[in-house]
Give the backbone structure.
Amino acid sequence: AELRQRLGRWRAVRETPPRPETEPVVSTQELAIALAGNELTLYYQPQYELASDRLSGVEALVRWDHPRLGLLGPDSFLPLLTRAQGKRLTRYVLKRALDDAEQWREEGVVLSLSVNVTADDLTSPDLLDMARHAVPDSPQLVVLEITESAAMEDELLGSEVAARLHLGGLEMSVDDFGVGFSSLSRLQVLPISEVKIDRSFVSHLHENPQDSAIVEAVALLGRRLGIRVVAEGIEELRILPLLEHFGCTHVQGFGLSRPVPANAIPALARYQLPIRSRMAASGASLG
Ligand code: C2E
Ligand code: MG
Ligand code: MG
Ligand code: MG
């Protein structure tokens, strides 16, 4: 009973969505204008492969370059999107990211490209068709990230998503893994190539035995399933050996690199210092 109580408390903490620091200061109308205009932009956060110590891919993260308020993160405006706007956003992000990747390729840099999508996106055939038509022309792997809880939605599990993704040469990643308490057997229905362990389990790994138990278990599961295991939210150098020991294959976090504008990526790709030196150079070990 005590265990159950502790678990319950723990779950409540995990599942409480982070509260925005301020109330949204933007309106849906303003957002509509931004979507139509040129105010949305993408930043890219590098992902490094532990085995090779190399930059292996980037995750596209949307920003709103607001004329009055400056650069806004997705948490301050994504919740305001209507369903139709959400689809338009994904279409825009996908197109823009593929364009940027093409630019990098012209500079000799080929990286895997991860884009965040919703369950709604994956069940709309037009959007997948668009992705499918765009992707064969580009040499880089395109990974669609969907949160664990979204991956559990019935409409997704019951749909033809698996078949469509396979046909399109797209891969699927389960984001924020560990937060949604999905049943692993349900996850098996989807064609998953990657799990991303949520930052909340990763950032205090070194001081929290429960967190390290979860990371270790997810990494083992990933290894057994033969898929990539990405640890996100690495801020400190000292957790890197632990992640490696547990069998995580890739790492992403402010300690390695913050999200950067598209034109900064080729230089980062050429700057192939081993991860450990990079972390030391970025001062990550100082927290
Ligand atoms: P996510 O997909 O889990 O993306 C990772 C988020 O964690 C990013 O925040 C990133 O900046 C942040 N992060 C990365 N490393 C660290 C770290 O070491 N420490 C800390 N404290 N944070 C770190 P961001 O860019 O604010 O994105 C938040 C969420 O918004 C994303 O979470 C994703 O779910 C959603 N999102 C972002 N871009 C898009 C998009 O184009 N479409 C959709 N549908 N959702 C998006
Ligand atoms: Mg993501
Ligand atoms: Mg995530
Ligand atoms: Mg997240």
